[in-house]
Amino acid sequence: MHVQEQLAHKIVRRTTIRGTLLTAAGAILWALSSACGQFLMQKKGFDPEWLASTRILLAGTVLTVIGIIKNRSGLKELFKNKKDIVRLLVFGVLGFMLAQYSFLLAVEVSNAATATVFQYTAPIIIVAVVCVSTKRAPTLIETVSIVLAVTGVFLLSTHGSFSSLSIDKMALIYGMLSSVGMVFFSLAPAKIIPKYGSVLVTGLGMLIGGIVMLFVARPWNYADFEKFDLTGVIAYIGLALGGTTIGYTLYTQGVADIGSARASMIASIEPVTSAVFAAFLGTMFGTLDIVGMACIVVTIILLSMPPKKLKISFHPLHGKHSKGDRAASGDDNEK
After folding, report:
1. How many distinct structural domains can be found in the chain?
2. Gyration radius of the chain's alpha carbons
3. pLDDT digits over 54-105, tens only?
């Protein structure tokens, strides 16, 4: 029995280490993807419309194929349910398309780190929505998180001044639009991911968002193919596949190993990593910028700490995971 306990302990330890490393790798790839977008727009002159539409379409196609291979019957069942189709459309258009397009616009007029931090304010909006819909007051931790998030956005956008903005006002607008998009991304698929699997639903959502984005952005009107050189190709692969297909796959396995609560806390390294990558691209950050980012990172950590009445497992490329994806929640892992 003692030998069996030691063996079980070793397996749990290995799984925990693997999950931690995979989750961190996924978050770093998300940050790298944002930096690749900044590089392509600010250094190579790519248009955000072209990047957003082709990126979502390419990544959505890859994930959809993977999802169909894993769960072909789920695809048939999904398209038999009209309500689930509507949820999927909302997820793809108001979730993926709005979030990704406005995120890249925010990156274009500011930098990858600032855009990422603004996007990370989405859980605060979700907390507000849930509190209103369930007619309850926010908990102490939720209240502290809201204050920290508002403080962080205020410091980032004004540097403490009540009379002026320290960043382009469009960066603030696009950043908050991206955050609203992430609210739809997080809430819209809540009832369909457990039924059909996160890979299939996420892939279809991206594919739908990409197709709609084609008609909105009309990327064929841009001559961005002519701007590709070796560095451009590498950066585009990092943007379109590194931070979506690969990063998402690594993060999903990490959640399966260590649970969504721990994974969300580890994924909070993304804004910090984005700032490091942005610094390599020449972006300068002041003390108040760093304090503002720290406030929002702490917000995510607080909201990810179990136990909570409201548990938000949030990130631009993950939602609640189904049993079909072998992803356990924080509670499941801790029981």
Report:
1. 1
2. 20
3. 888 888 998 899 889 988 888 889 988 999 999 999 999 998 889 888 988 9
How many beta carbons lie within 10 A of that of residue 309, not counting itself?
A: 11
CB 199 within 8 A of CB 66: yes
- pLDDT given for residue 318 in this prediction: 44
pTM: 0.76
Among 161, 182, 160, 164, which Cα is nearest to 106's?
A: 182
What secondary structure does DSSP assign to 99-161, as a single string?
HHHHHHHHHHHS-HHHHHHHHTTHHHHHHHHHHHHTT-PPPHHHHHHHHHHHHHHHHHHHTT-
pLDDT tens digits for 97-108? 898 889 889 988
Domain range spanning residue 196? 2-334
Tokens matching residue 57:
């379409």
Determine contact, residues 281/42, Cβ cutoff 8 Å. Answer: yes
In single-letter form, the type of residue at position 24 comes to A
How does pLDDT run across 20-34, given as a tens digit for each residue?
Answer: 888 889 889 988 998
